[in-house]
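Below: protein 1.
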Amino acid sequence: MAKVGIIGAGSWGIALAVLLRKNGHEVTVWSALEKEIRMLREKREHKMLPGVRLSEDMVITPEEKEVAEGKDLLVLSVASSYTRETARRFRPYVGEGQKIVNVAKGIEESTLMTLSEVISQEIPQADVAVMSGPSHAEEVGREIPTTIVVGAKSRDTAEYIRNLFMNEVFRVYISPDVMGMELGGSLKNVVALAAGIADGLGYGDNTKAALITRGIMEIARLGIAMGGKFETFCGLTGIGDLIVTCASMHSRNRRAGILIGQGKTYEAAMNEVQMVVEGVYSAKAAMKLAQKYDIQIPIIQQVNEVLFGGKSADQAVKELMLRDKKLEVSDLPWPEGEADI
């Protein structure tokens, strides 16, 4: 049995807390929100996960020291915009070499750092890993079979975390490509906004398939330029996570996109979804990274212009459709003697 501290009591943190407790581990959950702590202590259930019960022996606390000190693993599950602040709060209570696995997805806009880089900067003594993949909290909490990936600097750390989480309904792979995993997990949220916008405009499956396949090409182009591996973008934390986020109504990014496609501002859409829409925060960072590495990301660029530039959603689609003619895969050769079309 391991001692695990869950930092962040949103739906994803609670789903993982329930999973870890069922695996036999001792679990302590931290939240900065008094209302959330009271809800979990009194009802033993998160309002976003109806029917998913917290065991009576699971501790819910507002004290950083109580959730962090002496734990074998810390699971950091807060929205990307709060990652730095939260990591800074916990730094005094994290021991040398203590393992932290970050399960949020995003890029810090002001620094263009991935979340594991932010955590490592704020808690330099920690052994920081990431966990990502196609995994809605609503389904993990109901024990619907799910596959996910743990990425870490060392194989030993990745295997240790895998062994704590893995069971008959939660399969865990491991990877050394932390950068590729984090970029796939962050940028897919922006493409999912585009997929939702297309849904809100009343477009169909053809459009969705185009956005998914061309979207993963954009993510991979930028990710490889930043040091990620092509194979990662073909896997669970790339195309796998993109598919589930673009297709599912569990996806807050898709749901917000639908509202934007129907004419609402991103602020109004986020208020209606009532959850953090990570794609909104990652969209600007993605454009800055694309400019830094001189990479074309036309879908993500159009999402930015709809979100922040006042462009109508239908005009953005028209501009995507009427871009310069391209080869689908630019480095595939034609047979000898054939002219380029």
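Below: protein 2.
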Amino acid sequence: MGIRIKILGSNSAAPAHRRHHTSQLINIEGKYYLMDCGEATQLQLKRYKLRAQRINNIFISHLHGDHYLGLMGLLSTMHLMGRTKEINLYGPKGLSEIITMQMKYSETVLNYHINFVEVDTTINKVIHEDDFVKVYSIPLNHRIPCSGYLFEEKKKNRRVIKDKLPNDFSIRNIIRLKHGEDIFDDDGKLIFKNEDLTLAPKKSWSYAFCSDTKYDESIIPLIKGVDLLYHESTFLDEHADRAANTYHSTAKEAATIALKANAGQLLLGHFSVRYKELEPIQNEARSIFEESHLALEGEEFVLDH
């Protein structure tokens, strides 16, 4: 299945021009990971028929409202819909205080446990790991502490060629084949070579989410060779001064980062409300990095064979 990124919101600051605040749903082998949770995120999940209860990990880049103000509503709805499974909530210092304070004064007691994981926004490290993926923090250069996130799929199993398997082939031996092992009999004699019964694993993909940040080449070594890079592109180059003063980036700068990082593709997002039409943003980026695409709501970007 690879990695699938569903765009739920892609605007900065305020909703405008039928665009909502930043949020993305990442699907890796059927596991849901929510990236940022701007206002209206839960409505967007319903709109695109995505089940919120399948989300077990939420990543918040920073504590500007357009990236997390939908969180309390989403958590509350999960509670009202009977959720009992715990959820992991990753974000910078202060996020747990914000959520627990809201629950305290609304006298809300959730049916499920929130595991708050404080992300150090100054270092690059593994912050989450499961059977399918490792997630790394990416220090970003914004006005307040802010972290990007790099998703790297783990090495996949070899693919068994079912038509070549004997009829009585055991499940245990199939598992061994998937792990790259040869098959031996009880006396240690080689029966089957792995390469005769399997194909090489499918490619493992990578996705980097670089939220609000000014142009900063220090992230390039951390995302080098990434298959798909989301990099904020709040402004056009004609407003480069505004971008620098607000610790944001232009489409030109986002494309430059993608080019220097040797990324496979670039997603452009976090659009300023001053731009009703987004084609100029894409055109500016493509003048530097051809594989630049707009992170339009409802669009799904797929990394797979």
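The chain has nine helices and 18 strands.
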